[in-house]
């Protein structure tokens, strides 16, 4: 457990420090709008739509990528519910470690555990947050959900490049298959919003580019030495 907690810092997760905005508060439109206006300044974004997309990408990395990583390496996950987490002023996800439920995956119960875990993650957390982002900024739902998909693609690509056991490699593909074939109810929607965008292995290598644009190139000042995101679908100038 200690090793997992340490490793999750790579996903910008911090523990027992609360100096930002409770994510549950972002489900209120006025608070979300005020928050995104501040993020425009932080990210040097020219428009609130750009700030919404950058926030969605960061949030997906912290809650979705970290969960998938934990499943492969530890078979243990921290259940990061919307009422427990805080989005920090330093763009970290802050969680009260003593107040977070820990789920130990059991092979015999995996299907039921996965349904509960991913419904909690997507239908009860990501979807409500994205709905508010859409209402406040008019950003397209497809952009937000592909932001989630590219984080999934990335974490699995990085995991497969590691020195994994056969069991871990098999787990990656099984988990990918689960997400790709999950019904819409897991996401709180009629249809699976990520199945069109997630890729793995050779398919991802052959066609790494996004279909929608995340608007990263619109940022006026970037910390990374990049003009476009690494999977940008736009023609490069």
UniProtKB/TrEMBL annotation:
UniProt GO molecular function: catalytic activity
Give start and end of each Aerobactin siderophore biosynthesis IucA/IucC-like C-terminal domain. Answer: 53-169
InterPro entries associated with the record: IucA/IucC-like_C
* Protein name per the record: Aerobactin siderophore biosynthesis IucA/IucC-like C-terminal domain-containing protein
Q: Which organism is it from?
A: Gracilibacillus salitolerans
């Amino acid at each position: 457990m200690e090793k997992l907690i340490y490793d999750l810092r790579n996903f910008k997760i911090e523990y027992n420090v609360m100096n930002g905005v409770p994510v549950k508060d972002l489900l209120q439109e006025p608070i979300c709008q005020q928050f995104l206006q501040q993020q425009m300044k932080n990210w040097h974004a020219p428009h609130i739509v750009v700030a919404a997309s950058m926030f969605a990408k960061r949030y997906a990395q912290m809650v979705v990528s970290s969960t998938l990583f934990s499943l492969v390496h530890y078979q243990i996950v921290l259940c990061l519910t919307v009422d427990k987490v805080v989005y920090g002023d330093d763009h970290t996800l802050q969680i009260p470690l003593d107040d977070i439920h820990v789920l130990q995956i059991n092979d015999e119960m995996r299907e039921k555990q996965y349904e509960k875990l991913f419904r909690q993650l997507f239908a009860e957390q990501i979807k409500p947050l994205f709905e508010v982002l859409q209402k406040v900024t008019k950003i397209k739902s497809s952009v937000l959900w592909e932001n989630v998909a590219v984080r999934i693609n990335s974490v699995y690509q990085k995991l497969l490049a590691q020195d994994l056991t056969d069991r871990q490699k098999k787990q990656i593909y099984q988990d990918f298959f689960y997400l790709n074939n999950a019904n819409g109810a897991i996401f709180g929607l009629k249809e699976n919003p990520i199945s069109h965008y997630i890729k793995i292995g050779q398919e991802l290598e052959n066609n790494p580019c996004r279909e929608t644009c995340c608007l990263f190139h619109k940022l006026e000042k970037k910390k990374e030495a990049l003009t476009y995101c690494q999977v940008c679908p736009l023609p490069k100038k």
